[in-house]
Amino acid sequence: MADRGCPLEAAPLPAEVRESLAELELELSEGDITQKGYEKKRTKLLARYIPLIQGIDPSLQAENRIPGPSQTTAAAPKQQKSRPTTSRDERFRSDVHTEAVQAALAKYKERKMPMPSKRRSVLVHSSVETYTPPDLHSAPPDVTTGLVEHSYFERPQVASVRSVPRGCSGSMLETADGVPVNSRVSSKIQQLLNTLKRPKRPPLKEFFVDDFEELLEVQQPDPNQLKPEGSETSVLRGEPLTAGVLRPPSLLATLQRWGTTQPKSPCLTALDTTGKATYTLTYGKLWSRSLKLAYTLLNKLTSKNEPLLKPGDRVALVFPNSDPVMFMVAFYGCLLAELVPVPIEVPLTRKDAGSQQVGFLLGSCGVSLALTTDACQKGLPKAQTGEVAAFKGWPPLSWLVIDGKHLAKPPKDWHPLAQDTGTGTAYIEYKTSKEGSTVGVTVSHASLLAQCWALTQACGYSEAETLTNVLDFKRDAGLWHGVLTSVMNRMHVVSVPYALMKANPLSWIQKVCFYKARAALVKSRDMHWSLLAQRGQRDVSLSSLRMLIVADGANPWSISSCDAFLNVFQSRGLRPEVICPCASSPEALTVAIRRPPDLGGPPPRKAVLSMNGLSYGVIRVDTEEKLSVLTVQDVGQVMPGANVCVVKLEGTPYLCKTDEVGEICVNSSATGTAYYGLLGITKNVFEAVPVTTGGAPIFDRPFTRTGLLGFIGPDNLVFIVGKLDGLMVTGVRRHNADDVVATALAVEPMKFVYRGRIAVFSVTVLHDDRIVLVAEQRPDASEEDSFQWMSRVLQAIDSIHQVGVYCLALVPANTLPKAPLGGIHISETKQRFLEGTLHPCNVLMCPHTCVTNLPKPRQKQPEVGPASMIVGNLVAGKRIAQASGRELAHLEDSDQARKFLFLADVLQWRAHTTPDHPLFLLLNAKGTVTSTATCVQLHKRAERVAAALMEKGRLSVGDHVALVYPPGVDLIAAFYGCLYCGCVPVTVRPPHPQNLSTTLPTVKMIVEVSKSACVLTTQAVTRLLRSKEAAAAVDIRTWPTILDTDDIPKKKVASIFRPPSPDVLAYLDFSVSTTGILAGVKMSHAATSALCRSIKLQCELYPSRQIAICLDPYCGLGFALWCLCSVYSGHQSVLVPPLELESNVSLWLSAVSQYKARVTFCSYSVMEMCTKGLGAQTGVLRMKGVNLSCVRTCMVVAEERPRIALTQSFSKLFKDLGLPARAVSTTFGCRVNVAICLQGTAGPDPTTVYVDMRALRHDRVRLVERGSPHSLPLMESGKILPGVKVIIAHTETKGPLGDSHLGEIWVSSPHNATGYYTVYGEEALHADHFSARLSFGDTQTIWARTGYLGFLRRTELTDASGGRHDALYVVGSLDETLELRGMRYHPIDIETSVIRAHRSIAECAVFTWTNLLVVVVELDGLEQDALDLVALVTNVVLEEHYLVVGVVVIVDPGVIPINSRGEKQRMHLRDGFLADQLDPIYVAYNM
């Protein structure tokens, strides 16, 4: 894979060169050679084997990958200073794990996966600055300050992505229409299919699916899965708290004692970022300053002469990590004043990650005052008034600066009345849950005291010891050891701030050495950072340490940090028994800690556990399978005075078995007492009652759940294997987020993503947890590298954890939300992922491998015969689905109908009887009438055209004539001119002057396919057809005779042609279907007049009426309304060409208002333009006098399912202008019959029903209530026209169907078209479209098949004839449906879901290609945000349609082709995609 798309042709290197390269790598990793020297030597070694590429700077040659024997080796990125242990990042790695991962990867031969293609502009991210990597030197990554300046190497631009056919297999593929495709896209899809064909897992068990409720596959428990076999555990009791030691009655009493008897004794030393001690707080100072603060809080703060605070009120403590002194004063000052401190992080910006949740915590605690320092207050974001800004979601706060000069000195005789014993709340510690909500854990005075005693005993703290603390002193172990227990024992704490650790990772070791500290409190990352920086520091000694407390000992990777740290520092005086991992949780405080042997601790232990066992919650010591194991260390023994048990995670807290992983629960006087203000979850967590399998409680007092998962090992040592917050349950197996991170980091010596900048979490999609991994990548990583790394991570996780990763996303450096002290804010990252605001630069989705609970594909049952179908419906009491419009015979005088058989006769009759009656008015964009035609004018213009055709064109009767006119009266005159001389007109949309290359070939094709002998048009179009630009698009020499009708002489024809019979061809109607097929249908004179007659009756059209038409006049109902109906019925048509709306959106509605049209027709495109373009302008239109109250019916002419959302928003929007609520409706027509349904002016309003979308996939119709899950609203497509009969037939057996079935709509009517007219004479193929018969029942009637699926419903309404009204619902075109997983899907349903998924999806279209679902979305936003859509699109289609998306294509707005009716041309899009013509922003191939 390394050579794909890579500008290098890599030659295999000779063995000795490979050996020298390996030696070089080793020297670099050992630090024996600088980065520069390494690169120089490497370039020299490789110079002979690397051809010089033009345009690439030779100094960049080293950047390119040379595939080595098994994996690609790479030069380290340029901007990295020599990092002594480049690839060995011990923090997350144990050698065992790295080897396991490498071995697992070796099992997979390089499987070719299709790489996503990306537009170049997306690769070159906005600016160099956004790319600053967090760690430049051997320093830990910078995650609090913003960006670091440094020089940046622009990557050489390889030629445009599109011109490099990556991974092209020379095989030729073809599209559906036989277009050969030889493109990168199709070869990638082939690759994707090959990848998916390999079965990865045994096939899923079959299971029963009720035909209706598609059950999602419930994973059946595997009979071979591991089960715990041990005996039931019992309660483990910690050693008793030692009696006989004189214990202080309270912490404040102790503070007063030290403050008055040992005032000079040092309490806390604060350091600055250079490591210099800036201030040492003595016990005397701590006591006096705390008193001063307590006095100020109680006596000097008033509002309206009332004291602001009363005992028990909560106060926020906002102190930076660099100021432990002020924090300690504030904390003890609050305790002395009987106030409850709530320490929180300093908000850096108005929108910090998680800041809103902190606000929620402060609000629910009723905090109204925040204490802070002068310096910190100055740094907070300010509002215009100079006050501290209001943070998002925070309650209104008063800020009090507590530096000495702002405090009042208490009088000599003043003493606080602090009661700091008992169950009252002492302080509240915040905790962020997995979902991101922040809760406050309340710790009582009694618990606080008990915790101090227990820690003193467990750690053997003695008076005046020195402790170096690297942790956050505001919460957790940093607070318990460094602020509380230390005061209990008059200890001296040296506090090392995070900023100092970043600048000098060795600082804490130097402080231990300098202050001869006896104890140190660190996290595994601090040990890891100091390992990276320790070379050359020969003079440090750790011999003074008796305890090195590792606060995150519960992390699975802490063990490798501890081992590596001991390896290096044992020679500097560190004794092995000094390392003491501990485990803690916000709810239970310290749970367990390892004791040094002199405090009676047993020897430390390790457990090598089977990852597979752990995923079932079972402990199995792994011996054979070295690949997937987790090595954990013990976290020591239970705390003094505590009782511990292990219980099951879900449901009733039953005790676990000895070989089962469960949640650790603690009962002791030193745990938290509640979640502040949240009684429900408090009961669950702080008052758990563990029971035996028999159901008997095991203890008389409740336990607190710690959220830690683990077990009790030998010697009663506690082992932790994960946290409840990091638990992800997929199927029946559990995985730990931290373990997955560790595996990802062990993939390849990482020069590619930043350590510690990887987030793993799960999202629920389709009722199961799906694993998502997000990492920050280095700016110098190429597209190839990132993709290769991602595929390797997937394979490693699959191999080691036997679980699929649902989504892997890489984001640019420094863009993940940060937690207050480094690390990633996981819940915020998850939130951004789900909202589509993560903005990744690379994404790999693998839904195919990890979504295993899809419903079973539907098996096609052996077809039920049509007879059984009818019998079944009769038995069930369902009627056969058929309906008809009013009968024509009774409706009007048959004599008139005979007289009106030929439209040419009608026009002559009108010209004779009402010569000056106006038939047509044409409006331009300004709304002025540009041309009109009365009956006699139209007749005379038609005569002129007929004369010209016969004389100039020398045409004979029956010849076909193409009419290529812009919308207007000329087109109508030319149409009747053709009828007058017996020619057959074909209306053709003229080519677009700005877009000849795509529109002219269609014109040429229609002219050729219709065998037109002549082209009638205007002078302007004639010039266009013969222009140079036209010659580039088509062969202009093969046009038939072109006649322009602009200046034809006034001539009469000798005689007007009269067809011998009504069945003679009147005109041809050509249009392109949504599936991209050009088809012409034949309309006879009889069908033409029958059509006009039906429409006249339905819409009550008379000469006195005016109707407004905003449609294209080239095919279907649009053509009939524009050219035929006015002549037949004599009404006046106001013609509004839709193109004119582009320069004046309100043109159509103004015309409707001005001419008081009762009836108006438009297309969906027009309705959409009005809705989008006039949304905010209804007020302006009202001022201009636009009034739509005249409209009885406004019909959208369509050949698709009614777009309810659009028609409803149009109705709502223009209700203000008087548009009646029930006016808007849709029509339905198709190729075989252009007008089947049309609302008309009489008859009941169109009805809407809600159907179950899942049933629809099985061709069933099941009505449900509005708003029920999976409901889909469908609106009736207008009323069935007079003389039209409709039946619903089975698509395959052609038998009639019942009401509750979805089937093909068949139609029988006098205005059906008579057949297809195609050049290749393929009528035979489609003969049954026009002359189908039912296979059972009424087998005599001749029907036409519409090619649309729909159903009929008898409603409660009465129609004009007094019977119950039958409504026809159109669901979609049969050709467009997608057959997936044995079910029938309508593209529009999937598209509707996708468009809802994200606000920047402007439009969407779906199609299938070789059984893969391809989703194309138009991005209305920044290109950088394109990749956010991939996961959201995949999620929504899985959730709502149970389908796995194969390919997501993100394109610019306007790429999805749309025809004149506003319908998506999905097949054109498909061909464009496969021929690689879409110029996509990004193509993601879901694995």
Quick tags:
single chain; 1487 residues; alpha/beta; 9-stranded mixed sheet; 7-stranded mixed sheet; 41 helices; 63 strands; disordered N terminus
Overview of the molecule:
This protein has 1487 residues and is α/β, with parallel strands linked by helices. The protein contains 41 helices and 63 strands. The strands form 17 sheets. A nine-stranded mixed β-sheet has the order 8-7-18-17-19-20-21-22-25, sandwiched between helices. The protein is elongated. The two termini are 16 Å apart. Residues 1-11, 51-93, 123-182 and 199-214 have low confidence and may be disordered.
Describe this structure in a few short sentences.
The protein is built from 41 helices and 63 strands. Helix content is 29%, strand content 22%. The longest helix has 19 residues, at 783-801.
